[in-house]
Design a protein that fits this description.
Blueprint lengths: L2 H9 L9 E2 L5 H5 L4 H4 L3 H15 L3 E4 L6 H5 L4 E2 L9 E2 L24 H15 L4 E7 L1 H9 L1 H10 L1 H23 L4 E5 L10 H22 L7 E2 L8 H6 L4 E4 L5 H11 L2 E6 L1 H6 L2 H14 L6 E5 L8 H14 L3
Parallel strand pairs: 1-10, 2-5, 5-6, 6-7, 8-9, 9-10
Antiparallel strand pairs: 3-4
Length: 343
């Protein structure tokens, strides 16, 4: 069974030979080729080299074309991104570009074919899909509407505005949702399925009220339907942290796959995703993967895999792998998957 067949059968809730192994490798890709995130995220050649190295080292069942996944669309829309040369720091948004509701009209939707680094990531994904797509699912990383809104206007400012100026927040989310649709459609036109990242919408960063009143409608009414119309099939929505309190809202987005991150109620996620026929990826805590010993990591991976034994639609991975993480720690996850794949 190829990796693509394994993943597609999992998404179809059909038996597969193994649980798909999907570690969250973004800035860590750069370390695998001895470069910094700032170097790799701006070079097509280095990005492709790092993606091929990720395949060689970790042999994942699915690959995401992304490094600093929350910066690309914001930069293309006008935000300055701070790069760090050869230092290992992940590039970051220098400052919001919206001072308030009056600035919203100044925003222009970025064009994935020409603005910022959007064309670079589309081209990298297209090339990788052409070379590897027969046997491996390649995904293009998208910033979700709420995380993009926070990058453009400031996280605290957006959260305050959900109470004081909800009309502004909804208008900003409408803009951000269309950006996600445009970028996702650009990937789909190359045969690449998108994956949505929106961890600013986590209860730890926002609140269940904010998700229900503002984030959910952006996905349910705009992003998910538009991307499905453009040809998307599975549409994973990745919101990190303990998202147990917004599980029902996540299901209502219409996303085809959810994330049960460390700290979330795995048993409840498994139950509700089974009932709603949604694929689910569960993650080993990124802190354990970063600082733990391989045997500790294998033990925790085994606990998760045993809890999900026999579940259709289940994928396995970890939180975002730190740049300086020891590759042996990531490989410990794969070893646990391989050891328990028959359980």
């Amino acid at each position: 069974m190829t990796k693509r067949e394994r993943v597609e059968r999992t998404y179809a809730f059909e038996p597969a030979d193994k649980v798909p192994f999907v570690p969250a490798v973004y800035e860590h890709k750069a370390r695998l080729v001895g470069r910094s995130p700032s170097e790799v995220c701006r070079s097509l050649d280095l990005l492709l080299e790092s993606l091929e190295k990720e395949i060689e080292v970790y042999d994942p069942d699915m690959l995401t074309v992304g490094i600093d996944v929350y910066n690309v669309e914001a930069e293309a829309a006008g935000c300055e991104v701070r790069y760090f040369g050869r230092e290992p720091d992940v590039p970051a948004i220098a400052a919001p570009i919206l001072a308030g509701p009056g600035d919203l009209g100044k925003l222009g939707r970025p064009d994935p074919a020409r603005d910022g680094r959007m064309p670079l990531f589309v081209e990298a994904a297209a090339r990788l899909h052409k070379d590897r797509g027969r046997d491996l699912v390649v995904r293009g990383a998208l910033t979700g509407p709420f995380s993009l809104a926070c990058a453009l206007a400031g996280t605290e400012e957006v959260l305050v505005a959900t109470v004081e100026d909800p009309r502004f927040v909804r208008a900003l989310l409408a803009f951000s949702a269309r950006v996600a649709v445009d970028f996702g459609t650009a990937f789909l036109e190359k045969g690449v399925e998108p994956i949505l990242f929106d961890s600013k919408a986590s209860p730890a960063a926002a609140s269940p009220r904010v998700f229900r009143q503002f984030v959910l409608p952006a996905y349910r009414d705009v992003v998910i339907p538009a991307l499905r119309e453009a040809g998307a099939r599975t549409l994973p929505l990745i919101v990190g942290g303990d998202t147990t309190s917004i599980l029902e809202d996540l299901l209502q987005t219409g996303a085809g796959q959810l994330l049960c991150d460390a700290g979330s109620d795995l048993a409840l996620f498994l139950k509700r995703c089974r009932e709603e026929r949604r694929a689910l990826r569960a993650s080993v805590d990124a802190r354990l993967v970063h600082r733990g010993r391989p045997e500790e990591i294998r033990d925790e991976a085994g606990r998760i895999l045993r809890a999900a034994a026999g579940e259709a639609g289940f994928l396995f991975g970890c939180g975002v792998v730190a740049y300086d993480c020891d590759p042996r720690n990531v490989l410990a996850l794969r070893e646990a998957r391989d050891e328990l794949s028959g359980t």
